[in-house]
Amino acid sequence: MAKGKGIHQAEDAASAGFLRQPKVRLKSGDRVRFHFLSTGEDDFFGGGRFHMFPQKTQAGKTWTKEVLCVRAFTDGEEECSHCDEGHDDMGNRFAVWVYAHFVLHLGDNPNQGEGEEPWEQVKMGKRVMFKETIDLPLMIWMPYGRGFIWFGQFREAVVKYGTLLGRLFELKRVGSGMQDTDYTLAVVKEVDLEKKIQKEIDKSDVVTTIEVAMRETVSSGSASPAPARLSEEEEASEDEASEEEAPAAGDVPEMEEPAEELV
């Protein structure tokens, strides 16, 4: 078993694909507003080292299947078939459960006309963005970042506040390629997750421990070594369009800006 819990286990895992649970997926310019479902010191925050297997869709887009290295995760207590086969293209990932309220996009719903409605327009500063309502428990699952810069923001939140609970957060992504992608974690305001929402989550079986979620990648992993992928920090297909030009701000609701960035 992996040692420690929460932020500490995730940090230790880095030093030393396929996923059934839904994940937060952000494109360049997107911002997700959420409450953490982890204190940062429990089993709902964790990390691991993963074998990376490049894949390609029928449309020609590339993505990377991530398979947990159980040998690294258990400090050598369990055997890893990929390590035994000599596969050494690996990367670190950490994950945490959140309740995602909505995502702010630079452009409107691309699936209009396919049974979906336009997204609500909101104003962020001088810019109009498009609000996609989510209202679901999801996992933030991402690389630690070069020099642990992305993971470090989550760690700073735990250190500064003592818990990740009790605040509305925002995670923003900029960039769409291997070299220009960056993430910024920020506190919007101090406010608890609604008790009704928390009770519904507690009654469901959606939120598993991070260990369970990460181990689920093992059953679907590639059985043979694969060539090196493009970058340790690259996620699934990054064939994305550049940031869209937002419409001019008109008579639309104004959205509260984050109060504090954790960088």
From TrEMBL:
Residues 216-263 are annotated as: Disordered. Residues 232-246, 253-263 have a biased composition (Acidic residues). This is Bacteriophage T4 Gp32 single-stranded DNA-binding domain-containing protein. It comes from marine sediment metagenome.
